[in-house]
Amino acid sequence: MASKKLQMNFKEVLDKDKIFEIVKQCASDLGIEAYVVGGFVRDLILKRPSKDVDFVCVGSGIALAKKVASTLNANKSVQVFKNFGTASITHKDFNYEFVGARKESYQRDSRKPIVEDGTLEDDQNRRDFTINALAISLNGSSYGELIDPFEGVKDLKRKIIRTPLAPDVTFSDDPLRMMRAVRFASQLGFDIQADTFDSIIKNAGRLKIISQERITDELNKIILSETPSYGFKLLYHAQLLDKFFPELTNLQGVEEKNGHKHKDNFYHTLQVLDNTASLGGDLWLRWAAILHDIAKPATKRFHAKQGWTFHGHEDKGSRMVPKIFQRLKLPLNDRMKYVQKLVLLHLRPIPLVRDNITDNAVRRLLFEAGDDIEDLLNLCRADVTSKNPARVQKYLSNFDLVEQKMKEVEEKDQVRNFQPPISGEDIMQTFNLQPGREIGIIKNEIKEAILDGKIKNNREEAYEFMLEAGKKLNLTITS
Ligand code: CTP
């Protein structure tokens, strides 16, 4: 009864978009069967709109793609991957992928060509999870019928990730699927079925044959999910995380000495990560959260009086970022510098709330953080993981005060996007100098004087200050 209901719905959905009718017609002209398959069907049932549609046909995916493209008048947008027997069409925001049904495992990104043709059943058998092995017929009288050989719909309802075949077989076909299992669990809030999870633990070592780019793609999807800590905990317990991110698993554990305990920095980090997610943080703010305490193990010391300290972990952590980014094949560009900056500065806003704090400290932080100041404050807010609600409230309102103080200082001094009020040109002209070290010295002195509040951030005061600085260097004014 239930499946009949679904059947009717699918036909209705297919009728809303003419692409399905077109594929049906083209497949019928070529005398082959075609189906919509995989993630698109899963997302349809979950009501998650998707712009990627996968079609599988019992025959040549490339021939079908070419015929569909010519009907759509989109010949130019066909991309053919001959080795893999696949082709794709980009059309009006949508990406349509066509593949011939195959007996072998589905390995779109692998370099190994896939040659063996198969039936729809073969194809569904070799897919990763039951919820991704659903197909909808685009053929004749069965048009709109759901083909669900592994009870994928039931698993969607029960919120379960499970492999269609014995998990050892599915994972050895493509070990990246172990990461994908965790990624789907994290994105969808699903459980991983016990046998499937046990098999991941057993096969975790096989992740080493997978390229870091593919692993990091999945990791980033986990990081971008609503509660990323869930995905990280699964990665950790499945023993996948230490295979590619040992610095993070190293944070796990609590040491006790003379009655002093420090917090578990792994679980703390995961909570900070979740907090940045609830604040709407993008991928890079979330990476800053993941890495903000990464140097705690390396800087951990025990002092008889103070207990545990992690002095300098922000500085060391920030210096660890490039190596980690490089190994994880994350971009070594301004995004990495942003993460480094946030890790380095993450403790700086904390003392700024004290009454006796000078504007200078605020001004310096504004200068150093620049346009990333709001993100830095959000990272600080996210870093408040105390279990005591009164304390949390106090810390958070302290950061609101810091923000207010920063606004006031910025209004007066505009140092957030600091542009030197006196240029090197000005200095050279005033003292009739050729380019040389004096110019750098004077420019730096002016900047320091502004940041220290000795002069205002304007041309007049900076000009006077420059004349004085020149005098001290025994320079003569020429204009
Ligand atoms: N697939 C698979 N094994 C893989 C990768 C993909 O079996 N290692 C199959 C699954 O049936 C999947 C389909 O190929 O549904 C499409 O893969 P992909 O586009 O990577 O994932 P989606 O499931 O579409 O999900 P998303 O778009 O969220 O990545």
TrEMBL record:
Its cofactor is Mg(2+). CDD domains: HDc, NT_ClassII-CCAase. This is tRNA nucleotidyltransferase. Belongs to the tRNA nucleotidyltransferase/poly(A) polymerase family. It comes from Marivirga lumbricoides. Residues 261-389 form the HD/PDEase domain. SMART domains: HDc. Keywords: ATP-binding, Magnesium, Metal-binding, Nucleotide-binding, Nucleotidyltransferase, RNA repair, RNA-binding, Transferase, tRNA processing. The keyword RNA-binding applies.
